[in-house]
Amino acid sequence: MATHQTILDVDCAVVGLGVMGASTLYFLAQSGGKVVGIDTYSPPHGHGASYGGYKVTREAVAEGPAYLHFVRRSNALLCDLEHRYGVSLMQRTGTLIIGSEATSSASGFLRDTIGIAQANGIVHEVLPSRELRRRYPQLIGIAEEDTGYLEPDAGFIRPEPLLDLQIALAEHAGAEILRNTAIKRITSVSGGVEIEAEGVRIRARQVVVAAGRWMGELLGDQLASLLTVGRQRTFTFKVRDAAAYRAERFPTLMWFRERVGGDCATVFPLEGSEEGLKFFVADTEVDARIGQSSDRFFEQHVAPFFSGISPELQAMEACYYTSTSDHGFLLDWHPDIAGLFLVSACSGHGFKHALGIGETVSAVLRGRPTPDLSAFSLERFFAGLPGH
C-alpha cells in the first residue's frame, strides 16, 4: 500500500534552520508570501554549529571589508529585536584580541582588525603587553611582544535565544515550520525546485539551502568537494577565582599564543552563578576518552596562560564547522538548479553576520537591492579552470 505524502506548494522554502537559515526564514516571512522552513531536527539543537551558549561578535572583522555590512546590520537588527521584544540576545562584555608579530597567524589578523577599526570609525583601544598585564593579571601567559585590540562595544551573542525568537516570529508571520523532517533529495522542476522529505513533497518557486555540514550530501559531489566539515569541541573547567573571570573584569577573549604555534583560544566570561569557564581552540586534537582529552587540553591551553582555573572538567560540547578552502562564505545561486540559493560555509566566524545575511538573502530572493556579493560567489573556486 502506497504511503500517503503531503504536497506543499510554496513561494519560498528554507532548508536548515541554524542561525543562517532561521535568519533568512524570519526575513522572508516578514516580507509576505507562503514560506516554509525545514530542519532534520528541532532547532535549536546540538547537531550543527548554531548552539553552545555563546558566540563571539566584533565589528572590526579581519576577514575582510566585504563582511562589514553584514556585521553592522546584524548589530543594528539585534539591538532592534532586543528593544522590541524585551529579550537579552547579546552580552556587551567587550571583545579582546591578543597576539603578536611573532605569531604569523595573529600578526595579519591583528593588523587587519586594527586597520578596519581605524578606517571605519569603530571604537577601540590598542593595548601594549604591559597594559594587558595591568588590566588582566589573570592572564599569566602574556609575552613581551603581545599586543591587544579591545573593542568595548562587542562581546558575545546568545545563539539559542536568537534562534528561538526568529523561528517564533517567522511562525507568527505565517511561515510553516517542519521540524524533525529529513530531506531525501532536492531537484529542479518546471517553475522552481522540488524538495522530497519524509512524508512531504514541497514545490517551491525559490529555495534557500543553509544546511551546514549536510550541504554536500544534499546537493552532490561538486559542492561537497568545496566544503570541509570538522568536529569541534568546547571544554568547560571549574574556576577557583570566579571574580577574576566575571564580565566586569574579563572580556570575551580571542588569544593567539605563540607558545602553542599561534593557536587561538576563545574564552567567554562567567555569568551569574556560573562556576565554569568555556575554552575553545579550533581543530584541537582530542583523545576519544574524555578524561584524557580534557587533561591534555588543560595542560596545553589553559594552565600556562590562565590563573585561578581548576583542571576539573565540568562539561564538554561538540559542534560541526563547515568551511570552504579560503574560509570565506558561500552566498550564490546554484549553477544547475534554477531558483536555489546557497548559504553555507559560515561556521567559525559566521554567527555575528547572520541577521545581516538573512536580510540580504531575503532581498536577493525578492529582487530587491543588495550589497555586492561577488566576494562570496561560487565562481571564485572555478576561475581559471577549463570551461570557466
TrEMBL record:
Q: Which cofactors are named for this entry?
A: FAD
Look at the named UniProt entry and state the broad enzyme category this protein falls under.
Answer: oxidoreductase
One Gene Ontology MF term: N-methyl-L-amino-acid oxidase activity
Q: What is its EC number?
A: 1.5.3.2
Q: Which InterPro entries does UniProt cross-reference here?
A: FAD-dep_OxRdtase (IPR006076), FAD/NAD-bd_sf (IPR036188), MTOX (IPR045170)
Residues annotated as domain FAD dependent oxidoreductase: 11-362
Domain of life of the organism in this record? Answer: Bacteria
Q: Which UniProt keywords apply?
A: FAD, Flavoprotein, Oxidoreductase
Q: How is this protein named in the record? A: N-methyl-L-tryptophan oxidase
Name of the coding gene = solA
